[in-house]
Amino acid sequence: MDGRLDTPETLERRRIGVFLAVAFGVSWATALALWLTGGLADSPEIAEGITLAAVLLPTAYMFGPAVGNVAARLATGEGWERHRLRPEFEGTMWTYAAAWLAPAVLTVVGAALYFAVFPGQFDPTMAAFREQVASMGVGMAPWLLAAIQIVSALTIAPLVNGLFAFGEEFGWRAYLLPKLAPLGKRRAVVLSGVIWGVWHWPLVAMGYNYGFDYPGFPWTGMLAFLVFTVGAGTFLAALTIREGSVWPASIGHGAINAIASVSVLFVAGQPNTLLGPTPVGVLAALPWLLVAAWLLRR
After folding, report:
1. Residue 215, φ and ψ in degrees, nearest 5
2. What CA–CA distance (Å, rounded) separates 42 from 226?
3. Quick one: which of 12, 32, 49, 258 has the fewest CB in 10 Å?
4. Which residues contact 227 (CB under 8 A, 6 or more apart)?
């Protein structure tokens, strides 16, 4: 994982502490506000068809780490050196191509692995999705809606989603990861992935990613999510280290969010969400872990 990530020589505990306190404080306070107003499932509408959760999740919650970055710099007098906001291309676009397309490949492989283990849950006719579309009274053909979603996930969606994912990446990969580097690059990458996963725990407890109906709710969901964030976090860290910029990781994160739910279109019945078919399931996350292991050995 050699690259261009300038790092401090010693562990800057105060700056890390301020960053984590603000990043978790802003996001978890937002989660508390959502929980007190009905959670994610019963979030109140603030405008027609728009819930409070739909507004606060991509803004206040997701941008907590970015706020933590800014707060840590201001509170400790760090300044804006090594901000990692400038796009770097290192004479090649391969890093950005990997950020854009690799999540789709890994997600498809993970979903295929899940359906290979649970073949009865794979429905190429998308019957459940067609039923859902019919119940909503949508005039467009279900196969066309699915095609639009897939094409979008491979083209424009990584960039659009990446603008929201920037709120996380400017904190986790652009600030925390370099700060943890004195622990050793591999340890820093894994630890930052674990912290990223823990930061999501209030959402998992409110049914995000896995729902409510699984054994050991919510603790098993919280642990399962760490498997994904260590795997995907290593991939995003490698992009950041390679380019020394926040933007490849933001695009990669956006690409993950864009493609993650496509496999649900082909599900028959109720899937075991702790295992898949989306990449946050432990079984579907195995390709991410294999890539992570390869990257950590480099």
Report:
1. -60, 135
2. 26
3. 49
4. 282, 285, 289
Q: How many CB atoms lie within 10 A of CB 272?
A: 17
For 81-119, the DSSP string reads TT---S---TT-SHHHHHHHHHHHHHHHHHHHHHHHHSG
**Which residues, in sequence order, are CB contacts of 72 under 8 Å at separation 6+?**
15, 16, 18, 19, 22, 78, 175
User: What is the amino acid identity at position 230?
Assistant: V
Dist. CA 26–CA 142, nearest whole Å: 39
Q: What is the pLDDT of residues 69-93, one digit of tens each?
A: 999 999 999 888 777 777 766 656 7
Which residue type, as a one-letter code, is found at position 22? V
Q: Are 170 and 67 in contact (CB under 8 A)?
A: no
Cis omega before residue 218 (within 30°)?
Answer: yes
Residue 190 token pair: 């894994």
The one-character DSSP state at 44 is P
Spatial neighbors of 174 by CB under 8 A, at least 6 apart, are: 69, 83, 84, 85, 240, 245, 246, 249
The token pair that represents 296 in the structure block: 């950590």
The answer to whether 292 and 123 have CB atoms below 8 angstroms apart is no
pLDDT at 293: 96
What confidence tier does 133 reach under pLDDT thresholds 50, 70, 90?
confident
Q: Which two tokens stand for residue 49?
A: 């068809």
* The pLDDT value given to residue 86: 73
